[in-house]
């Protein structure tokens, strides 16, 4: 009888130890720490950097500090293409990129950086609801382990920054215009009449100054940030590309997060992106005044043959086999 009681007592102790152990693991899991090292090529003075910090702070607060986003400006972790390859392998890094580069994996998504594809922030918001765009994002995730958190990050419209006025595609003939070295950017600039030159943004100033290039196509914030008003005399508002940015992480890292944290990461990324994009849009007029104050002549869109530029830009869609992708998405947008 005593042996039986002793056996029951031992069993109860073992059960209590097991339950305590299980509770400990559950509690430990709920407080597990995650770190995302987020890389971007922009300077700390750029609005997007503050936007990323806002995103990080919101995520930290909503996860009680258990999901920390560490933001690294000025490509401190490395070049964009290398970071994307790292995150694909499961490294806990993220990157601010664009559809042109993502088009190296899913070709049709590059259309989002083609000439006159999206022209307003409202256009970009509509893209979030496009079944075709959603499929491209799914393909990136399922086939290439790239998880897009948000593309509500819009730097604005790109214009021609040169030392001669540009009012029609004919004015770009013979000009060497700097643009990123990926197909959709290159073909877009070529279709508009110029010769594309792949060059890092940090070399644009000296490139224009020394005549290695005749100009660049950039958003207004790039002109002030790079002090290009010291090297170029004109900004022609061709508005040829709406610069949409994508925030990406690796699928393996994303899948390692609790579902609640996944939702928070996406929700706050979308929110921060839209807020900073609208703020930048509101600051455009002030940037133009600042640039003009340095002696740069701004040629407004109403003095430019935008219709001719749009017609010329069709060549980029044809060359890259993006006509069907564009038309399908436009139909879904009601555009």
UniProtKB/TrEMBL annotation:
GO cellular component: outer membrane-bounded periplasmic space
PROSITE patterns: PROKAR_LIPOPROTEIN
A Pfam family matched in the record: DctP
Matching InterPro entries: DctP_fam, TRAP_DctP, TRAP_DctP_sf
Superkingdom assignment: Bacteria
Matches recorded under CDD domains: PBP2_TRAP_TM0322_like (cd13669)
Biological processes per GO annotation: transmembrane transport
Protein name: Sialic acid-binding periplasmic protein SiaP
Species annotation: Paenibacillus naphthalenovorans
